[in-house]
Specification:
Blueprint lengths: L1 H20 L4 H15 L4 H16 L4
């Protein structure tokens, strides 16, 4: 849950920066949000979740 919340916050911050910078219009952001909701309810959601979890475990295992 912590990883998914972190990803949501990161994506929210990026969307806010793009909206404020003029690179992303509100209608485009709305389409992205709707796409996210539809992806979350599809059968691909489990694959996306496991891919993100594997990526997070690889990144957390790296030593600087």
């Amino acid at each position: 849950m912590v990883i998914s919340l972190s990803v949501i916050v990161l994506l929210l911050v990026l969307a806010w920066i793009f909206l404020r910078g003029g690179g992303l219009k509100f209608s485009h952001a709305l389409v992205c949000v709707l796409l996210g909701f539809y992806l979350a309810s599809s059968s691909v959601a489990a694959t996306i979740h496991s891919g993100l979890a594997a990526t997070a475990s690889v990144v957390s295992g790296l030593n600087p």
